[in-house]
Amino acid sequence: MLILPDSLLAGKEAMSAESHATSKPSNYRVFAVLRPGERAGDLHPVLNAGMEPTWEAADGESIRSYEVHGIFLRELRDGKLSLRNGSSHLTGQLWVSGQRIVVVSKNYDKVTWDAGNNTNAAIWGLGFEITDHIASKVYHGLKSHGKGMTTHLYFPWIASVMWSPDGGRKSPPSIRFEIRRSLTTGVKPYFIELQFSSRINTSQVAQDIVRSIGRWYLAGPVELDEERRAKMGELVAASALANPPEGRFASYKIPLSHFTSESTTPTALLAKASGNAVKKALMKAQVARQLEKATAFREHSAEGLPPSDFFDVPPLGSKRYESPLGVLVESTKRLWTRPSETLQFHGWGQLRGFVLVDPIKGIPDKDNGTFIPLCQGIGQLLLTNKNIFIAITKGSSAGGRLSPDGRAMMVASMPLAEVAHIEMSEVTNVPGHVGPDLVIRPKNKMWGEIWVSSVGAELKLRDGQWIAERGEGDLEEIMDRLSSICRQDVLNA
Question: pLDDT of 457-469, one tens digit each?
């Protein structure tokens, strides 16, 4: 898959290395033909004047090098590993650094390729994207002096490292690296296969590379959960694998890998990790601020309109909690009226209330505050001959979230004398809900509003026991009943 330089595509004389110091990145085809100092994007290495990789600080100082005597690119076709291109006559060098492997070959334009005809082979499987005329020039006298065919595979791109031992002249010791690309047609695996002389112990080289990959992940920018960290620790201590059957490869699977892309180079991953760290810090600060405001609201909740009370329900078998707002709460979180008030309606459903607060401090402010949701979630609506109570046991509130399996609970109250209207609103005020909703509106807007989105059950006391009449309640029928209760009780008062 050679990416021929622009000068070659145009059929012009080779330009100076300086003028090609920064070339337009090409579509990634694993290998590229580059001059010293030429940049083809982050997917390819940069070569120095000696046709060796230009190293970065992250490559470290312990860089190993091995002579290569054969380079192949293979791919999966119909589930079978097939040769895309390459040659056993390609020679070069393999380098292993602290973050990548790099391959460079300088005789790519002088060898006979193994796949297809030489025209196709000369451009490393690009087919006829380049004209026959230009491609044939590569094979008929236009030699690429001062350039090298090169690729690099950063450790996060490597999905597996495979090796085979020396099997004689027809099966030299080899190593394969699996990488994957995310294409519009799906995930595409590629296998870069390198052959070595018989004196190279590919088992040891593969083991060394796998251990380096494990060390990179443990010290690198990729955030690992406990399971993956343990698996990378196993890679660092990877033992040698038994020799595979003749003609086969032994394989080290890497438990985590990324698609080959400019967004998955170590530098890009580090930038992303840094960005994630900033986001996490901001989220942590935001959560801390919300908790601070919720705590402040709880301490002053009774000063708001409607006044509210946050508390933990009593444990099973204990005396009922008596809220300062005038309602009793038992261990099951059910509301009870005080003896001095008469129960008129008790329902369970989805409720929402509002309150005026100081937006910075989170403390109720009836004079200069901003309306925010006092509560939203599942709870109870209770009417007596004197008050309306709402109790939230599951959902969110200005005092913090309320869990259905926790003991925390919130109650708010509004005197019936403050109620101006109980009506239906076609436009809902509850996110994610399609109206209409039943709305209890006060005479003084400072009291906020109470919205009822649904009534899933009505609680009735029969023979000394509470009975829940299940079934979705008719909000309009309930609205008429509540309006009648309010009018009658206000008149009686």
Answer: 888 777 766 677 7
Give the closest residue to 209 by CA, choosing from 76, 127, 102. Answer: 102
CA distances from 331 to 50, 58, 170, 335 (A): 80, 61, 81, 10
CA separation for the pair 340, 267 (Å, rounded): 71
297-492 CATH fold: PH-domain like (2.30.29)
- Cα 294 from chain centroid (whole Å): 29
Q: What token pair was written down for 271?
A: 């930038």
Output the CA–CA distances (angstroms, integers) from residue 286 to 36, 222, 283, 292, 351, in the order listed.
Answer: 50, 24, 5, 10, 26
CA atoms within 13 A on the CB side of 197: 6
Collapsing DSSP states into helix, strand and coil, what is residue 453?
strand
Contact, 418 vs 443, CB < 8 A?
yes
| CA–CA–CA angle 90, 95, 97 (5° rounding) | 160
The DSSP output letter for 47 is B
Q: Rg of the Cα trace of the chain?
A: 37
* pLDDT value for 8: 28
Parse the chain into domains and list their residue ranges.
6-264, 297-492
* H-helix or E-strand spanning residue 415: strand 408-415
Query: Is residue 282 classed as helix, strand or coil in its secondary structure?
Result: helix
- Strand order, beta sheet including 80-96: 32-34, 148-154, 100-105, 80-96, 64-77, 186-195, 174-183, 160-164, 250-253
449 in Cβ contact with 355 (< 8 Å)? no
- Side-chain-side CA neighbours of 243 within 13 Å: the count stands at 8
Task: Extract the tokens encoding 135.
Answer: 């491609």
Q: Check if the beta carbon of residue 176 is closer than 8 Å to that of residue 165.
A: no
Determine the Cα–Cα distance for residues 411 and 450; give it in Å rounded to an integer: 12
The H or E element spanning position 64 is strand 64-77
Strands (E), 220-323: 250-253, 308-312, 321-323
User: For 423, how many CA atoms within 13 A lie in the half-sphere containing its CB?
Assistant: 10
Encoded amino acid at 334, one letter: R
Q: Which residues lie below 8 Å from residue 245, measured CB to CB, with a gap of 6+?
A: none
User: Per residue, what are the HEC states of 125-186?
Assistant: CCCCCCCHHHHHHHHCCCCCCCCEEEEEEEHHHCCEEEEECCCCCCCCCEEEEEEEEEECCE
pLDDT at residue 310, rounded to an integer: 95
Q: Tell me: the pLDDT tens digits for 382-412?
A: 999 999 999 999 999 999 999 988 899 999 9
* Model pTM above 0.85: no
Phi and psi at residue 72, to the nearest 5°: -135, 150
